[in-house]
Amino acid sequence: MDDPRTTPARGDLAAKHLEGKVEAARFVTGEAFEISDALAPLRRAPSSDAELLTEALKGERVTIYDRNAEGWAWGQLNGDDYVGWLPDQALKKPAGQATHKVTALRTFAFPGPSIKLPPVETLAMGSLLTVLREEGSFAVTGEGWHLPRQHLGSAGSYISDFVEVAETFVGTPYLWGGKSSLGIDCSGLVQISLNAAGAACPRDSDMQQDKLGRALDRNDTKKLKRGDLIFWKGHVAIVRDANTIVHANAHHMATAIEQTDKAIARIKASGSGITAIKRLG
Predict the structure, then answer these.
(1) Residue 171 has pLDDT above 90, yes or no
(2) Nearest to residue 196, comparing CAs of 180, 212, 210?
(3) Cα(245)–Cα(256) distance, rounded to whole angstroms?
(4) Which long-range contacts (CB under 8 A, 24 or more apart) does 78-83 make?
(5) Residues ≥6 apart with Cβ < 8 Å to 243
(6) Could you tell me which of 134, 173, 207, 182 has the C-alpha nearest to residue 190?
(7) Which residues contact 164 (CB under 8 A, 6 or more apart)?
(8) How many CA atoms within 13 Å lie on the side-chain side of 204?
(9) DSSP per-residue codes, the chain
(10) Strands 14-15 and 27-28
(11) Beta partners for 226?
(12) What's the pLDDT tens digit per position in 92-129?
């Protein structure tokens, strides 16, 4: 059975490419858009108080299949295939391929070449931009924004150690469905970190457990290496070294570094043992 989280199909409407594979009243060809807002919520239903499923960063591409009169658009993110409702105002027609991405935890976009000017936007790690030119210590985008050059990298550049990326999020508040330094959840931390290292990654922890790496003996935690992933029911953590993990979690309500054995005992006491240990690469 297709996962509804990544299958653009409803009873009344589905993507044209699913015709003959799923049942729906009608099938439509999607329309390509990109995220124009700094951060756009992807929600379970077309309402601002509906559950936050994930977030889309500026420059991400999305295929839209439906739009309603209340300002919501239903579609599928191209990066991880997640399906849900986005604010229509957060979308724009694609305007060429991005040249750069934000590599800092977050950065400011200034209206001119001075850090003394009030920023017009705050952009999160992984946001995609089209840089037209450089002006002193700034990169100037198609929007006319001036961003510090040291906070950007080329769109095709990647960091070698994804764990190092995860560690920069320590202290970030926990947010269910979050995917930025303003708020992030456990699987969002894994996804953003792996993406920064050039690796594709599903959105949710159960998807990550199914799709990533090779399984190790889940009862043998003495041989853990940096970059291993530990899974519990509904949770995932990244191994830093033989003794510690980094994970976004609701116990600390933040991304935190924790002793591995203490975290395992704490989570087990709350009702979940380790479900898998996966080694990447």
Answers:
(1) yes
(2) 180
(3) 8
(4) 79/195, 80/6, 80/54, 80/191, 80/200, 80/201, 80/202, 80/203, 81/6, 82/5, 82/6, 82/42, 82/53, 82/54, 82/203, 83/4, 83/5, 83/6, 83/7, 83/8
(5) 259, 260, 261
(6) 207
(7) none
(8) 15
(9) ---TTS--B-SS-EEGGGBTTB--S-EE--EEEEE-SSEEEEESSSSTTS-EEEEEETT-EEEEEEE-TTSEEEEEETTT--EEEEEGGGEE---S---EEE-SSEEEEBSSS-TTSPPSEEEETT-EE-EEEEETTEEEETTS-EEEGGGEEETT---S-HHHHHHHTTTPBB-TT-EETTEE-HHHHHHHHHHHTT----SSHHHHHHHSSEEE-TT--TT--TT-EEEETTEEEEE-SSSEEEEEETTTTEEEEEEHHHHHHHHHHTT--EEEEEE--
(10) parallel
(11) none
(12) 999 889 999 999 999 999 999 999 999 999 999 999 99
- The two structure tokens encoding residue 269: 């006491």
Asked if residue 1 has pLDDT above 80, the reply is no
Burial class (CB in 10 A: 0-12, 13-18, 19+), 205: buried
Residue 44: which pLDDT band, with cuts at 50, 70 and 90?
very high
Pairing of β 254-259 and β 244-249: antiparallel
Tens digits of residue pLDDT in 9-33: 999 999 999 999 999 999 999 999 9
Closest alpha carbon to 202 in 76, 83, 80, 103: 80
Q: With b meaning 16 or more CB within 10 Å and e meaning fewer, what string describes 91-116?
A: beeeeeebbbbbbbebbbbbeeeeee
Give me 89's structure tokens: 């105002």
Give, in order, the Cα–Cα distances in Å from 89 to each of 70, 72, 93, 117, 220: 11, 8, 11, 26, 49
